[in-house]
Design a protein that fits this description.
With 185 residues, the protein is an alpha/beta fold. It is 14% helix and 23% strand. The protein contains two helices and ten strands, in the order ββαβαβββββββ. The longest helix is centred in the first third of the chain and has 14 residues. The two termini are 29 Å apart.
């Protein structure tokens, strides 16, 4: 395993690290210790080249950080009829702690067939949307988070996000929604 800190020249904050040459399907205790130490030191860790990672291995990785955490933060089940999240994600049938999110049609993934994923627009979650003229070039925080506290659950110590397919295309500038005017490219 190799660890490389992420450094952004325009930032005063070193935030994150990349770990390469690790197979989370067959993770040893020593490898987990290095990942844990890297995460706690750098706050965000990218595990590169995990295309063959199963939902089971993804869940087990996060579960090994916090064995007492159960579920994924929305209670025991996702009530499709009442949840605002239902159109935006699907549950992996054989690993219900893992959710599939994205945008577009997916013919088959992990036992699900013909699924249509909808990536919500920032207008759905923010009282003051980004002006129409900036809509294609800018976005806001709203997607990756843990809701456990909303359901009287203790959030897990860590969470994970695995990119199965990352589309090529335009980049967007993220605008903070805290009144500071700060942006992140």
């Amino acid at each position: 395993m190799t660890v490389r800190p992420v450094s952004v020249p325009s930032s005063n904050v070193d935030f994150g690290a990349v770990i390469e040459n690790v197979d989370i399907e067959h993770l040893t205790d020593d490898e987990l210790s290095l990942i844990r130490e890297t995460l706690y030191r750098n706050h965000v860790v990218v595990l590169k080249n995990q295309a063959n990672c199963s939902p089971r291995a993804q869940y087990e990785l996060t579960h090994r950080f916090d064995p007492s955490a159960q579920g994924y933060g929305h209670g025991k089940t996702l009530d499709a009829k009442r949840s605002i999240l239902h159109p935006d994600l699907k549950t992996v049938p054989h690993q219900p702690e893992v959710q599939i999110i994205g945008n577009g049609f997916v013919p088959e993934y992990e036992g699900l067939q013909n699924i249509k994923l909808v990536h919500p627009h920032h207008k759905k979650f923010h009282k003051h949307p980004i002006p129409e003229e900036d809509d294609l070039t800018h976005t806001r925080f709203y997607r990756w988070h843990i809701d456990a506290a909303l359901y009287d659950l203790n959030p897990p110590k860590v969470t994970s996000l695995m990119a199965v397919s990352v589309p090529k295309g335009r980049t967007q500038t993220l605008r903070y929604d805290d009144g500071t005017g700060d942006e992140l490219q």
